[in-house]
Known about the structure:
Elements (H helix, E strand, L loop, with lengths): L5 H13 L4 H20 L1 H5 L2 H5 L4 E10 L5 E12 L5 E7 L5 H17 L6 E6 L8 H15 L8 E4 L6 H15 L19 H21 L7 E5 L3 H12 L3 E6 L3 E4 L6 H10 L5 H6 L4 E4 L11 E4 L8 H9 L4 E3 L8 H9 L3 E3 L1 H4 L2 H15 L5 H25 L6 H20 L4
Parallel strand pairs: 3-4, 3-5, 6-7, 6-10, 10-11, 11-12
Antiparallel strand pairs: 1-2, 2-4, 7-8, 8-9
Amino acid sequence: MALKSSYMKEIYETVCRRNQGEPEFLQAVREVLESLEPVVEKRPDIQKAGIVERMVEPERFLQFRVAWVDDNGSVQVNRGFRVQFNSAIGPYKGGLRLHPSVNASIIKFLGFEQCFKNSLTGLPMGGGKGGSDFDPKGKSDGEIMRFCQSFMTELCRHIGPDTDVPAGDIGVGAREIGYLYGQYKKIRNEHTGVLTGKGLTYGGSLVRKEATGYGLLYFTQEMLQKMKQDSVKGKKIVISGSGNVAIYAAEKAQQLGGIVIAMSDSSGYVHDEAGIRLDVVKQIKEVRRGRISEYAKEVAGATYTEGCKGIWSLKCDIALPCATQNELDGEAAKQLVANRVIAVAEGANMPSTPEAVECFLQEGVLFGPAKAANAGGVATSGLEMSQNSMRYSWSFEEVDQKLQQIMAGIFHSAYDASAEFGAEGNLVLGANAAGFLKIAETMLAYGLTF
Ligand code: NDP
Ligand code: 2IT
């Protein structure tokens, strides 16, 4: 797809000039600008108020030093980030990523996408994201704790339950949230909903752990039902990754009668036509923090292949990329199409390259973009914030039911917007347009405050 209007071209050129050397951020912005062309055409008031120009520039971008001591007594220095992208509709909200690849480009692409995703949930949350280039792999519990404490010592000045509410992402799960929350509470002397994904004994919500994966399947089921009168039942499913999102996507897929035949990590993938045994995956990944290759040693009939990209050459009906950005490229998309894939839904953020997205849309593959399909995690974070404000907890069933309703609602908002703006069934355009409009209306209401 190309940008057609001179208005959007100019905005994109300015973004390119200001954010040189930040390919992921530019990729995310470009896709949104392409989607918004038909929207802005109908809305001269949005153009006049410079809403798009304001939305591509973060409200605030923080970068800080994180010094900590490793188990050998050596001082280590990492770089910490938090982008507070847009707070029009609620406090900044979005996860923290700990991975050696983290840089300004990755944090800004994630923060930018988070604004639209959070808007789509219907809950009052703005967009933010953060993290560090700290590599948690191979670190001891003590090292993780000292890093998290140092990271929060700076971050705590910038966040708060009504200001900015971080959560988990790659490399940040229950253990890290515990250390981060403990340090926040110690410094600020307050027990508040400043982080989500907390443990159940100190303000966490039931279903938050499962929410992104479960939500991805609720979305996929709704998309299959409404667009193809079909369902997940009996479908062969390939899921990349074997972290939080992948594991609970697999769990819900199996509950809905799907057959998950492959999972991966950054080293390679396992293939098990009999259906992946999740108890084994959980033991390897959640308990031992091991590698997915161990699965093939423990389960007869399963095979392990080095390299993670090959997973997309397996024949399947549904593909769920749940690892990381740009993990599914144009070639992989063509292979999936040649193998007659019916639906692709993104559990990870921006896992499909622009060429892959184009291929799926052109070939009539049902395509659930990340901003819509993986919003169940942050939606349940929003529900955790509500429960914290009430100082009350809902049951598993109550939260799960709200999650199902939210995911169905997101599908319909995206679908309806795709029809309204002349591209019925293009959920990329629909999700971007629907997410954008709620924020745009709010910014219009405020006048030029920022
Ligand atoms: P985890 O850290 O739990 O798991 C990440 C998984 O992805 C691991 O299997 C990891 O393999 C793999 N992975 C990470 N980086 C790479 C890479 N560069 N190349 C190949 N594989 C990689 O993270 P989550 O499951 O929480 O996150 C997965 C994706 O889902 C991310 O894109 C995240 O932004 C997105 N997401 C997460 C949400 C959440 O609530 N947690 C909500 C919405 C989206 P290895 O162990 O080898 O690194
Ligand atoms: O990408 C995401 O939506 C997340 N990592 C979850 C963010 C959150 O605040 O729960």
